[in-house]
Amino acid sequence: MGFLIDLACFLLVPVICWRLVRGAVPMAVLPILTGLAVAIAADRFGFDKSVLGPSKWGETIGWFGVLILAFSAGLETRITANPGPRPGGRVVTTALVGVALPFAVGFVVILSGAMNMVLAQPAGVSSLLSASAIGLCLAVSALPVLVGIVRELPMEDRPLGNLSLRIAALDDAILWIGLAALLFLHKGEADSLFAGGLPQAGAIAVFAAMIAVRRRFVDRLPDHMLISGALGIAYLAAGAWATSMLGLHELLGAYFTGMLAPRQLAERLHPEALGKLALFGLSPLFFAHRGLSIDGAVVTAEALGAALALLLLAGLSKVAAVHIAPPAADMQMTERTRLGLLLQCKGLMEIVAATILVQAGLITPTVFAVLVTLALISTTLTVPLFRSVSRARAMQRKPAG
């Protein structure tokens, strides 16, 4: 019975709401918003939120779904990151500056103590690591959500949208590498990577094997759904196991495994469809449960103010980064702004990153609530802001009179 209640509240309700608003609010936002609303209501009205979830089966299904979602995001980079010629030096520079500038702004603001009333660091955690964790969340661009947004853009905006995907793919790779580094430093395992015996050696061997065989045998296998599906499951399971053996989060393994998968396998697994299955049918339970796990008492006016302040800093920094280091020297100022607005979308990637960080103890539950709120607002505002600037550009292009 508990599982059915869990499904009804945190899977069916978000999907129904998404249909009612006709997709105006991204599906990435609604599950965690549902869970957060229940958590706040439980605190304000004094009822036991555990009667609604999470159930054991619901948590398992949600966890499996978010692993598939991370895996599909990695697969997307194999397809979208190289749709034609390889990204040039300027595109790579845009991606690097687009991560570095928001990260630096967030790092300095948090380290200065300007928001310590709300964003205090966890006990026993270095202030440098805590500030780095928040800065990394401010720097992320949401590749999976951007894929959906770009597919809904008018045809004349598709080239700019595809460019944003190439940059976001690089940003995502930097995010996951940064997360891995933070977890190693936090757990004190950076100097003992090879001191864990056979399991850690086996984990490293798994990733080495994936790199070695990525172009060797997949193209020789029959293009059959069952074969491709079995190979995809094997890749996902091996990557999740390997990162867990290295003391990292399984989601890191799921994402990196997708990135390391042979391009032919990525195409056969259809990451767009795979991502939609996870997004609508499985992972809503995971994200709703994360929202439900937030203490409703920490969602205060101060926390909302901090989220809005960080959103403003992160968004302006991302747009400024594109203006400072555009992917093309002759790109017009309005086009740089529109590209920056697409890239400031946080989506699921920030929520996943914040979930990993709070579970590792690098950020507090209050900071997690602030970052989730920031991600929700950022994702919801991306399309309206992009359309607003696009309309202003169209008006300027009309001949006078």
Automatic annotation (TrEMBL):
Keyword Nucleotidyltransferase included in the entry's annotation: no
The entry's keywords: Ion transport, Membrane, Transmembrane, Transmembrane helix, Transport
Listed Pfam families: Na_H_Exchanger (PF00999)
Membrane spanning stretches: 27-45, 57-75, 95-119, 131-151, 163-185, 192-213, 225-252, 304-329, 341-362, 368-389
Topological relation to the membrane, as annotated: Multi-pass membrane protein
Gene Ontology cellular component annotations, sorted alphabetically: membrane
Top-level taxon of the source organism: Bacteria
Location(s) in or outside the cell: Membrane
Keyword Nucleotide-binding annotated: no
GO molecular function: antiporter activity
Domain Cation/H+ exchanger transmembrane: 11-384
Extent of the signal sequence: none
GO BP term, example: proton transmembrane transport
PANTHER family assigned to the protein according to its UniProt record, in alphabetical order: CATION/H + ANTIPORTER, K(+)_H(+) ANTIPORTER 1
Protein's UniProt name: Cation/H+ exchanger transmembrane domain-containing protein
Protein's organism: Sphingopyxis macrogoltabida
Top-level taxonomy: Bacteria, Pseudomonadati, Pseudomonadota, Alphaproteobacteria, Sphingomonadales
